[in-house]
Amino acid sequence: MKKNKIKLNKTFNPSFVFRSPHLQSIMASSQLRVPRKNIMLDCSREIIIDTSVDSRLQAYISHHAASRGMIIILHGWEGSSSSAYVLSTGDYFYNLGFSICRLNLRDHGDSHHLNAGLFHGALLEETFDAVNYLSRQSDNLPVYLIGFSMGGNFALRIAMTHASIPITNLKHVFAISPPLDPHKTTLAIDNGYFFYRKYFLKKWKRSLVKKQQLFPEKYNFNKIMQAETCMELTENLMPYFPELTTYRDYFKLYTLQNDSFQKLNIPVKIFISEDDPVIPLVDYQSLQENEFFRISMQKYGGHCGFLDFFPVKCWYQEMIAEVILN
Question: How much is the pTM?
């Protein structure tokens, strides 16, 4: 199949009225950006993946009849395979000729019933297994991994693990607005504009209620539901993770520093904005690019946004397409 030639501006420069980082961040998850006609969804089917750590993860796969390759998408914290940015990205690349896999992390989407254990951000092994399984469904065509926010953090750690445990056919990893230090990101959510804290707390508590209803003999979150910040709720949940001593030790398990990126053997690219309201820019100042690691730092974009509306387009989708099609 002939490859498309795409010539794009390497700098994201949205219309003046859409430069607000908060508008960018809100619109990233707005259903307004999801196409009304989504062929990818029409041919999607659910699969349940058994992992090596005796857990099960849910994914949705849309095979393209004339596939160029496979794109695996990881959503952000308290997002899902049905998040607007996932559906928009999946639709965009399906229309370019790629098969799409939308993976739900544990306890995200409609997957709470699959595992008795609770989700936490350090559950890398089961996520790696699921991505490895999905990549083997590509019929030996190229596989690309795209992660958003916390899913971007997972994608980066999967790329690092790939250096010692190769994933079949994986060619490139992309991370959109990934947190490097989850402790700082949690503080940024709590101490920034109130609607970010309110948004994440509401979705997190709703998820915990669902988990308690499914496993009442194992969980009683009634008291900790009074938590008023994400950090307070994180700390209150630590007794449910006896293998983790404190919340600081927990956060360290998926904190990424410059050394983390020096042993990559597959191309990795991060898209991040200077005005991201929940990702401290200081976390990126010590990172050094190398042969396999590149950072696209933009002035605008908010958190997982990078959207313009006249005409409607998503900048990171076009930039990723330029890499994998040319």
Answer: 0.94
Range of the domain at 261: 16-180+257-325
Instruction: Please tell me the total count of domains within the chain.
Output: 1
* CA nearest to 160, candidates 88, 296, 268, 313: 268
- Which residues have C-beta within 8 Å of that of residue 299, sequence separation ≥ 6? 11, 12, 273, 274, 275
Residue 146 lies in a domain: yes
Which residue reads 């700390």 in tokens? 235
Q: For position 69, which CATH number holds? A: 3.40.50.1820
Q: What is the pLDDT of residues 96-135, one digit of tens each?
A: 999 999 999 999 999 999 999 999 999 999 999 999 999 9
Please, are residues 237 and 212 in contact by the beta-carbon 8 Å criterion? no
The tens digit of pLDDT for each residue in 250-287 reads: 999 999 999 999 999 999 999 999 999 999 999 899 89
Beta-bridge mates of residue 307: 314
> Are 5 and 324 contacting, i.e. CB atoms less than 8 angstroms apart?
no
Instruction: Please compute, for residue 161, the number of CA atoms within 13 A of its CA located in the half-sphere on the CB side.
Output: 17
Residue 158 in any domain: the answer is: yes
For residue 197, the number of C-alpha atoms closer than 13 Å in the C-beta half-sphere is 17
4 occurs within a structural domain:
no
Task: Classify residue 204: in a domain, yes or no.
Answer: no
Crossing angle of helices 84-94/315-325, nearest 10°? 40
